[in-house]
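DATA CLASS: polypeptide
GOAL: derive structure tokens

***
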Amino acid sequence: MRKQEARRFIVSAGAGLIWLLVSAAVARPWVSGLVGRLPEMYILFAVAGIALLPGYLTGVMFVSNWLDACAGLWPLPDYDGPVTVLICARNEQKSVYETVKRVVRQDYAGPIRILCVDNGSTDGTRAELRRAREELKTDQRSVFITICERPGKANALNQGLRLVNTRYFITVDADTFLKEDAVRLILSRIVTSGAGCVAGNLLVGRARTLVQKMQIYDYLLSIAAVKRFQGSYGSALVAQGAFSAYDTEAVRAVGGWRQEMGEDIVLTYRLLERGCRSLYEPRAVGYTLAPETLVGLCRQRTRWARGMFDGLRAVAPWRQNSFYGGYFETLNESIVYVDLAYVFGFLAGVLLCLFGYEYLVGRMTLLTFPPIVVSAWSTYLYQKRVGAVQEKHSPLGFLCFLTVFQAIQSICSLKGYWQALAGRRTVWK
């Protein structure tokens, strides 16, 4: 397996490097034509950030994922040992009962202990948890409730961790609804692989607004592709708290979660540092309630950007136990540059184009749109098939994702980077 990973990495990295060199050669006339019109350092900054580096990253990931897909999915023999599902909630009255019900109705043959931690809710969350405990318990499914009055998601998770008495446990957010085979599939993967953690395939559920419909494609295309890329080398950088499986002793060995904006990112980095593998299982699907409004989306992406810096402070790339862990963490940090170039290069180029200056963006840019559509749509169909995803297609959401979503994400991410560097503190809800 490790030799296959090494061969796949060499081939994909080589393909990405070739693409980078060809792109740089093609871009030379473009750069030469801009000299004298724009500052030279700005030209190099913009062209490298909006064309060369994204092309390399996309090329490496595409080739690696294609080779991984050709090798087939990891076989998943059934596992039916006892497992704990940890659900932390704060003011989740509208969704937490449904979340617990979806866990109870899993097609998993073994016993499931559902451990719910209420983190000082001020609405009817606690009443909904009691209702779930009374109405949903069965011989193989039990619901326990514990109260954590100390604010902070990490505090709630750690209180729950102290009560876990099974070899493996799964975290599920209080607004995430698992597909009926999700527990069985993600547990089978962590048991047969011996990994420290396995990230599930988290998708958008109940998309009603245009903002949510755009996120359907972000989760299915961007996030899932990155997780598959990193996970195929045992180094998925984020086993998201919304739906992931963990080896209990491995998590306890690193001290559980830290009270950070990106507590799940930090935990994953520390597990990788300890030598644990971090995987991704695309067949284990959970649906989350994505932000409904643009303001909510911006807040979420700002938090995610801050979480990346939390992970970097916790474990620097050179401290990672494996080459792949350090490599992916380094690539992850390069996204800061890509976001800067997108906002101050591409978006600035669009503004210049509107005033008649086709320097960085022009009519020729439109020629890139058809291949982008074809690539995104083919990836969308593949991702739906792998996870047997029942996601309703939204043509308008797809179009907006391709045209405006990256601008929203990059701007919000820059805000998060600035908050992280400025040391601004935030709290969970």
The chain has a mean pLDDT of 92. The longest strand covers residues 278-288.
